[in-house]
Amino acid sequence: MPAVGFAAFAGAFIVFRLRGVRQAELYGMTTVVAAMLDFALGAYALVGNQAAAAAAAVATTGLLAVKGVLHEWVQKLSWRELRASLILLAMVFILLPILPDREIEPLGVNPYDLWLLTILIAAVSFVGYVAIKVMGERYGLLLAAVAGGLASSTAATLHFARLAKTVANRKRSLSGAALLANLVMYGRVAVLVGLFSPAMLVEIGPPLALGALATGAVAAVLLQRDFQAMDRDAQEMVLKNPFEFGMVLRFGVLLAVVFILAAWLKREFGQTGIYVLSAISGILDVDAITLTLARSGGPMLGILIAVAMNTLAKAGIGMVAGGRTVAALLSVGAAAGIAGIAAGLWLVETL
């Protein structure tokens, strides 16, 4: 019976579809697929689960309603972004399963875990990268800073500092945008810690939260005066694709080096060695040392040292790329963030 019904439905649909193609030259497949899905869901509602069929129908209607927006987004993605998605799938479903899931002696590194963490960080960065590509300039400086911070707060800081050098009357707002991108970094660290060490998140949460609030307060002050001009400052941010194989490989190597050094320094010098490594690696990247210490149950203070050093390094980026004024503004934000971290540490130790 369903086959007869589908044949009748398909026959009527083909007649009307052919008329539409001839008269309006509508050649898309969306209508055809939607019609077939509608019939299938209707049949499933009769013979199967009505709630599931209704949910699928609502989801389909929602996708059809935003079809134009989705098409617009896809058009902004180049072959490089689509290729990056394929690379992600290959990393997850081809390369990851064949890696040994055990520690390799004497390095003490698990290749499976190492590659999984590398993919995780690249995927988070890719979300911000795609957001920048999709949003373009329409959504202004505020969201560009947030998406840039998600992709790479260091790259976002460099972008806004360079832009401040060319748009001299917007140094405050662009410095505020750089600090806003840095604020996202605090949240990113908190998420990574929470994924791998929920117990550590309870302790590190207050310092990160107060550091983020202090940084956000300075960013808000800098952005507030020039809020009306923010859309004019939102020029396209040039970021490297996080799934370019070279970038993924470089981060994987950095992560492996930090893993190995952390184990060796802790064995030879105790926590002092970890703190030195945190300070040095934090200048370059916060994610690697965060993952290392969160997974191994390392000292919370090591992560906070890395965050503080990374924040100070961005003030240095402001000096090189944006000049003294930008460096001074970023230094104020860095000092506020570090003061917030210190206050959070005091609260954790006191309460």
TrEMBL record:
State if Membrane is listed as a keyword.
yes
Keyword set, alphabetical order = Membrane, Transmembrane, Transmembrane helix
The DUF4010 domain covers 119-322
Question: Which Pfam families does this chain map to?
Answer: DUF4010 (PF13194)
For this protein, the record's InterPro entries field holds: DUF4010
Q: Which residues cross the membrane?
A: 26-46, 52-70, 82-100, 112-132, 139-161, 173-196, 208-225, 245-265, 272-294, 300-321, 328-348
Name of the protein: DUF4010 domain-containing protein
| Source organism of this protein record | Kaustia mangrovi
